[in-house]
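Page 42, continued from yesterday. The earlier attempt failed because a stray header line got pasted into the input along with the sequence. Redoing it now with the clean sequence only.
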Amino acid sequence: MWRATPGFRAAGSLAGLAFRRAAATVTVTPAEGLADRPAEIHVRGLPPGQEVTLRALAAGEQGSLFDACAHYRADAGGAVDVGAEASLGGDFVGREPMGLFWSLSPAAMERPHRRLEPPSAEAALEVELSVHRGHSGPGGIPGQVLAKARAERRFTLPGIRKVRLKEGPVRGSLFLPAGNGPFPGVIDMFGDEGGLIEFRSSLLATHGFAALALPYFHFEDLPQVMGDFHLEYFEQAARFLLRHPKVKGPGIGAVGTGKGAELASSMMTFLPEVVAAVCISGCSSITASALHYGEMTLPGLRFNMSRVSISENGVFDMYEALEDPMDPANSHCRIPVEKADGHFLFVVGEDDRYWKSCLYADIAIGCLRQHGKDNFTLLRYPGAGHRINPSFSPVCLIALDRILGVPILGGGEKKSHAHAQEHSWGKILEFLHFHLR
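This time it went through. Structure tokens are written below.
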């Protein structure tokens, strides 16, 4: 379950926490750790060659259950080292040290297609690990419980300060690392689900960034539905961050996913305050709603809902819905990234089914190259889908859309997507540290 945790004990302080069942034990090290850091899982005290199923169980924001399982066989010493040994079946196969965390998905009795993401930065995800006799599949009846342990996955550290922002029209949460700073500043935005999403910003703060989680609709007194955008709102947020005494200049970074990637790209194109942009699964054009800045307007590229296909189990495939940004009639929607002097990091999954993010990254890169610019890096991941989150985040390939209320296909294959999350998160941190140093 999610639990608000005012204090954070040392990561290894509960490393030996285990619940004994007969002779077997299971331990998670650290028992309390940050959600984007690895953990080690060890089972000991089994009969040599014993077949066991390891299960992970967690509760989401409203108490809905998420679970995962994997099959192992004890070695000659009666032990299972999840980090060193391959899963033989279950929700994943092969050597996946963090598979029981990233494969968490709605349990069989729950409504499918829900994301397991924290409601706030203070919420820790409590995960129960259990060891069962024999091999039992996902959704199956597990065998006898041999051992249990608990782990907490946290999104903040002691000393990190959260400041709820009401600066003129700008809203959000600012996360400041411990110490005097100054720290590199980053604005963090998600997609068109709206609201305030804090977990990536708080994790950025654990890596030494002053990170502002910036909502742009459906939060407090911001517009409740997504309408036209005014870049002045984002400009005020950037200027606020640069003025903060714990933020170092001369420029800041912007990170965005989906619609947030469009906005991050637009901020770096038009705002001199932004010198580095991480664009995850974004479009090369403004989509759906127009973007205004002073007397300039970029119209929104339209979605043609007649092109949406619906599977037999009611999942919506939006891949062909967005109008073609390469059509000359849509050229006025394109973000003129060639005007940007900073650096772009494009992160895309080759199996993104929400839209054609690989094509859109290629379009943006083509425009930069046509103008003699090489201020970009492209990370392109085979088998990854749309929502590429920080390392070890539970993978959700089909997600309920908050606005439409229907499941939308994000695409990807779980293991490949999880690997993309782990690799890209490290590269994102490296990119931001390098360009904001």
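Notes: Residues 5-21 have pLDDT under 50 and may be disordered.
Reminder to self: strip header lines before submitting.
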